[in-house]
Structures
1.
Amino acid sequence: MAPFLSKIKNLFISTKSHTATEVIFVLGGPGAGKGTQCALLVSSLHFAHLSAGDLLRAEQQREGSEYGALIKNYITEGKIVPMEVTLKLLENAMREVIKSGKEGERKTFLIDGFPRQMDQAVKFDESVCLSSMVLFLVCPEDKLVQRLLKRGETSGRDDDNIESIKKRLQTFIATSMPVVEYYRKQGKVVDIDSSATVEEVNEEILKGMEKIIPGITKVAA
């Protein structure tokens, strides 16, 4: 195990107690509202939010990036970027959050859009830490398409077009659903109907989180 991974792993404790540092995965199809809901949780509970997709897009646009062209190609084709690239970007981002905090400070990470396939889930569990919970945002496919096309009018993203959207949805069903079931067998999944209003979805998320880790929504600082 790399020195940094070893250091990170020691900082994370998989537990049902809200006194430890936790990692919460936020999964759902493209357009399910992962970013929106994570932003609300960051605002109200002061969690640290890391979006795998945002990290990849930022790296794609970073001048001199050795992964930029590769990432752009994978995203445009609706494919999953190689695990090593995504995991490295997450590691770097987590390290920065931990370095900026106080010694011994409790930190809850929301990681959205990851893991997207089984090898990512297994590698993260083995090399970084065991997650505490998975928030799974469920929404009908037709509504996801409508949301993404609407977002595409202003987002400027390469993948907010109907062709890429269809590919992304197909990829999600084929690769991410096994991940959800993997964690469901561990009793970690909270199913959330994300077709409702933003406020209603947020309320259900808070209730669901309390069922898995009692007290986690009461510890904002």
Note: The two ends are 34 Å apart (CA to CA).
2.
Amino acid sequence: MPVELRKRKAPALVPEPPTKKQTKVSQVATKAKETVKGKPAKAAKASDANGSSKPAKPVVGDVVALDGFGGEVETHDGKKTTLKALVEESKSGVVIFTYPRASTPGCTNQACLFRDSYEPLTKGGLAIYGLSSDSPKANTTFKTKQNLPYSLLCDPSATLIDAIGLKKSPKGTIRGVFALNKDGKVLLAEPGGPAATVDAVKKLVAESEGDAAKEEPAEEKPAEKSEEEAKPTNGEATEDKKADGANE
């Protein structure tokens, strides 16, 4: 006889418990949890912002990694160069003074002050440059008209101006001075007026000259003979007497 299959009855569905209405206390607790969960995301955003922020401007005493620092600039006569190349070409370091705009009264005063003090400022081996966001044409006119003995650097994109911390936000150049030695150590990094920038370099040169004088070894004077050493020996005295007798 054929086997008759019996169908199993489906299990009865258990009704879901009714959702409880949140009390005021539980609602406050839920909101607090959501707030706490949201904080790490905000912190992450802040850290991302910090990570993408530009590096801090160099200060006196810092040693700058010159490779790629400040990007590429152009001299007033059209020569492409970098801060690294300028430092390597110098004897003891580089001084860069920044000015907002060529041929304006304040910038002319500043450039002429550096011109008039050029010889004493560079006698120790420092190379001086002016730096602005002006075009090569504007800076060439400025240099020629004022008879400036140093080169002017053109930085229209303000990459070097920004790197040395003298870029005005959102646009423009802060008047100031920046100096570093052959090792890339920052010697000066400060804003200032026309006279203040020149005075800062004068002070730097004076200090370096003082340090150089301290390092020079003192000349050794020949030792003076003592009275006993100065007295002639018996042989020397005899020879002196013979010489005196011959003269008589």
Note: Confidence is low (pLDDT under 50) at residues 38-52, 239-248.
3.
Amino acid sequence: MIGLNDKVTRGFKHPQIARLICPVSWLEDFDQDPEFRQKLADGKHIPHPHDWPLLLFDEATFDITNLCASFLRNEMLVRAWRMIFQGPSAVDGHTSNKATKRGNALHHGVKSVTVNALAYIATLVYFALSSQEVFSAGGGDNEFDYYEFYRGLVATLEEEFSAKDRSQVIEWWNRYELRYLLVRKAVLTTSQASFPEVCRYAVQNHAASKTGRGLMMAQMRQRDAGNAA
């Protein structure tokens, strides 16, 4: 059980949550090495914000050799989106006759899912699963860097993904949500969604090629090179 108000038992101290927020590049060690899992629980290993956690991927189709295929398609992200932009009644698949008031998306005339909105939702979900008590930019001693996590997701989709790959992610979300959009006669988007810039961008030294982000981009470059050959 996960306490609703007690975050001490969340994060890497909770076996199921720990796997969700574990970087995909660490999954093999996580699954096979109890000592490694204990070090995570003890805070001896702090994930780099660009080492994408499993929660960003659809677990049913997750493939470490093809990360792009399931990127940002986790059901938990979809449910968080509905909670924030459509209201609690949408989370359980209720139709409009169950809703008591209009959702945020309808109020603000949202029309399509956007990169910033997806990064914002992913950041909120990571925080909700973590053991950190207060939502902040993070990045301090023994703290996950939420600001850089958000910025990294935006940069990956806007600057590193091809237009085709980016549109496939957006189209998947728009298509996935279509049944709810038709029922509520609204379309979801948050072109103005943004993460509060409460700290400056912090440059960290890390082996980018070894992170989940670096691995995914390397796979995509190899794929594109093969297609061009």
Note: Residues 60 and 144 are 26 Å apart (CA to CA).
4.
Amino acid sequence: MERTAFLTATVLSTISFLLGVQFICFLHDYRVLFLPTLEPEHIDAGFGFYSTFAAAPQAVKVFLHAMIGLALVSLLGKLHSWNDAALFFDGGSIVALMAGICLYLSVSLPAIHTITTPLESESHADRVEALRVLGASNTMIVIALVGVLVLQAGQWWASVEVAKEIQREKEQRRERRKSRSASASLNKQERDRVVKGLKAE
């Protein structure tokens, strides 16, 4: 139980950290995705942000990827219990997290490379399109990460309900034992009265 609680806390903390990173990105992504007109200053702000992001020290990138790996390892550790709750909730969380990781590797990273270090054949329009694609990818990654949190919350709720049901069953068994004990005591008293009556006769 303590091991599962520790792994759950690790999953929640790492996923929350990754959502925080995505929230920072969304401050620039929403301008590209949801504003009716895309102004040049919005494009320049997005290019500048992701260029700074790509030029971050190696330690920052290692830490970010370590958080992703830690979340995945923790979910695999929870799945190791191999009960119904783990298969459904932790298995679903792994699927959602893997979907986010696949989006990050196959869409987000190539788009960042196009924005920050474009090839000679890639025009300014290609970089703007990459910025849009990156924003859409980040939004889908957020949905996947929120899905992990929802599944983990669902697992907690299910465990609470199961514990309540077990407690109710224990109380019902206890009441049945008391009822049988009281019935047996009454039957014994009745037999004793009958025996005394017979002796008196």
Note: Helices lie at 2-34, 40-54, 58-79, 84-116, 124-200.
